[in-house]
Amino acid sequence: MLPELSELKRKRQAFDLTQIELAQKTGVSQSLIAKTEAGRIIPGYANAKKLFDFFESLHHESELRAHQLMAHKVLSARPDSTLKDATRAMEKNAVSQLPVIEEGKNIGTISEKLVLDKMNEVNDPTKAGKLIVRDVMGEAMPVIMGDSSFRAVSALLENNAGVLVARKGKIVGIITKSDLLNSMLKRK
Predict the structure, then answer these.
(1) For 143-176, what is each residue's pLDDT tens digit?
(2) Which residue, 6, 65, 125, 127, has fewest beta-carbon neighbours within 10 Å?
(3) Could you tell me the fold of the domain covering 7-62?
């Protein structure tokens, strides 16, 4: 289903295109574009589809990708670390969760929430601090490729504390909800 024809002018202007430029890029005549924008003519389905498919392709090209959103420094915890060490690392780096990495593999996640839950369970912070990350960690963060779209990243973050970014099987970045919010603030 195609968008409303009344959207044509708004979309063209949003991408800072003249009617002539749009005509050249789509193969639809400038005259037809002008008459359609003025509401004087309804183009055939094939021409309307060409126009809106072109805008859709521009939208996908301009969409942020995971490699543009990620933090390149991936802080992590080892599975044999104590909860005290993992908590200290989270506090020092002002993060609320860490992926648990073993021999380059993403095997779990340790978070402030998991640590607090364990502290409440054992009812002794000293004992909880001596526990091992492997025994407390939660599910591993999902791993995506660097060219994954903003939408894909955002959808994964609805149910995950973070998303790891991989290149050639190696983890090269991490994206959290905070990174998405920061990307919005940095964009014009």
Answers:
(1) 999 989 888 998 999 999 899 999 998 999 999 9
(2) 6
(3) 434 Repressor (Amino-terminal Domain) (1.10.260)
